[in-house]
Predict the 3D structure of the following.
Amino acid sequence: MIEVAGARRDRLRVAGVESIGAYRLLRLARAGLEPGIPGQFFMLEAPGRLLPRPFSLCLAPTGELAFLIDPIGPGTRALAELEQGESIDVFGPLGNGFDLSVERPLLVGGGIGVAPFPYLSERLGGPPAVLGFRTALHAEAAALVPGAEVVLDPTLVTDALPADPGDVLACGPEPMLHAVARLVPDAQLAWEAPMACGYGACYGCVVETGGHNRRLCVVGPVVRGHEVPADG
Amino acid sequence: MADPASVPILNASGCLDALTAPDVAQALDAFVTKTVTPEPREGNPPPRIAETDDGMLNSIGLQGPGIEGFLEHVLPRLELLGVPLWVSVGGFSADDYVLMCAALDDQRSVATIELNLSCPNVEEAPESAGQLVTAARAATSKPLYAKLSPATWDIAESARACVAAGADGLSLVNTIRGLALDPARMRPRLARGAGGYSGPGLRPIALACVYTCAQAVDVPIVGMGGVTTGRDALELLAAGASVVALGTVLFRDPGAPGRVRGELEAEAGRYRMETGRDAHRIALP
């Protein structure tokens, strides 16, 4: 095991993999890694691929770290096909998670953006949540977030927000995050970008925040709505 | 840091930030900065990276604080790490290299200046590598390493020109330009189109460049390009490098400096060498 700026990297054994609707939940034996703060992320070795892939922690059951995988590319497919007993290198927790000192939290998610919410919901004591999905099969992942309200395409999560949404914590596709930022400038948004390293080395994951290209792995992945440009 | 009898291991410029990962930098024999430019740069728009079958493409575009910002905000913090510092500089004309080398010349903490003569992601200076080294040489008495592109008509000729102009060593190699297409849209995956190709696919190309230059000039060579294992490092030494730098491998394995160092010595042992240093130039005719 090695330690880099507070995060640890170790080889973790697959404790189990299960299907949750269209997604796969990959459960790893935790070894010496800490679960961190919801919204922080881990770099997972994608078997057979050059670069690891970033994932936020989905669940932190005792002795395990669990990640929700949407098998859409070669890396995520390789992770989704892992079997119990195999091992992969895992590095984290990395980046800045959600600010949990919120009075009236509301979780807003789209698609695989539901990934950090089960752990976040647990840590916030089961706040209300609005989740949007493409299909009913994808929406099965909402079962991981107690009490979540679900909307299906073509309804948008932003259509389902209450007039006074409170403290919004959001994760989802970029157009959704931009829409949330327009409605709630102070919302906490778990942004996403392609990342090669996750620890500030590659400069691949920049997002324009505050008028400059900044590394998402350093300033995020959770950013405030008013920090990102109002396009999208 | 390693014992002085072992092979020095550095990072390739732009593949590690010592300020976000001090422990990784401290596992190296020297830390090489991301290329510093005369003015601050925002770099290229995202997407900037794409994984390919045997490597990756990047198009970062020399994002950085510029030489003034570097001297004021970055260098003082790097000095606290206790690791020898190599500063990589890049520019768009000979005057740019002069300006930066002059600015670094009286910085006692800077051990070596590496001249990035080969970034594939920005416009190139119109002068030849030899002319840029001549200009830089006149501006500093610090050791100067010239970092060359593998996509050169005759890399031995470039190496000879750099050494004749006063380069104290060579860094071989930078990335080589490559392109990847998004399968759904059949459009480039990087915002800027092509990018610099690195990783395992670059390794045989780097090995050939080191092998060629080691026969053309008599200066130390920092070998880099797709090194993933100690075996890869040993091959670069055999081809003529005396120092090895790690690039893309650092993205997947921040523990690579210690791992590669250990593997290199173990691999050398398999050839009944006392240390990896004994492999130096054994592949040459």
User: Anything to note?
Assistant: The domain at 2-94 of chain A is CATH 2.40.30.10 (Elongation Factor Tu (Ef-tu); domain 3). Chain A has two domains: 2-94, 105-227. The two ends of chain A are 41 Å apart (CA to CA).
